[in-house]
Amino acid sequence: MRDWVNNAIREIDADFQRSADTHLIKLVLPELSGIDIYLKDESTHPTGSLKHRLARSLFLYGLCNGNIREGAPVIEASSGSTAVSEAYFARLLGLPFIAVMPASTACKKVEQVEFYGGRCHFVDQSSQIYGESERLASELDGHYMDQFTYAERATDWRGNNNIADSIFSQMAQERFPIPRYLVMSAGTGGTSATLGRYIRYRRFETELVVVDPENSVFFDAYQQKDLTLTSSNGSRIEGIGRPRVEPSFVPSVIDRMIKVPDAASLATMRWLEQGIGRQAGASTGTNLWGALQLAQEMLERGEQGSIVTVLCDKGERYLDTYYNDEWVSRQIGDLTHWMSKLPGF
Q: pTM for the complete prediction?
């Protein structure tokens, strides 16, 4: 058993060494004179999203805690991107993988999980993914990875190679090297926890602002200081927003939260394509909308500085939804009002 675990950790470390760090993209926005906005492009990971970092950490956490065993299946509750990344690492280690996800998950994500050898197990409501994952893990004698509980503790927020350390290292030669704001949306809450803890550990003056979509309880729970809140509706922005406050969400390291309308997220996502020539997902639109609101506030106060947010995943995963005008009109509504508020549109 120990030999298998040692080899599994070695395989993950070797995979990491084969991967370069992700890029930091500076947006060209003449309207925001004196304010620089950057996107940490997590779509360039091997599995195409921010969740690649999380999946690597969760596998190492599970291996070092003795929970992931040779030949035993790994089960995860996921709305898509985490499942894709975990399927990648499960294949790397030769393990069966099952993703429990809502039936509404984008077809492209389902195809990618299956591409890496994983199996998708669908439920009708997003709130059902937790219990069904536990049931499958018990029935199959496997390990329920449970990203929503372990995301905030699986990542070493003090060490190097986490997303916060990477951002501040890459910003070192910029004209405003210490960002005024870091902006991040919450799915598990693990990335915002890593960013907030790192800011405090390094004693930076940077503020962490977490943006939240419609049909998510994170914002209300933060405002009301009530972590027991729940919602019967699921987020329409895949990968972020939850109907309950997840255990990995750490409100005490957050300086401020902003609620973002779903139509604003999609408008900003499409606006970004005009600026960088590539499509990103709607969670990136949520992040960037928040960053632009903060930039406008800085302009009004006469401040200069930098803002960093995250490009979470590739837009090609959402061609049948967020980039489909008929779907958007039916599910989200008209984006014209929100597009008119974006710089230079």
A: 0.94
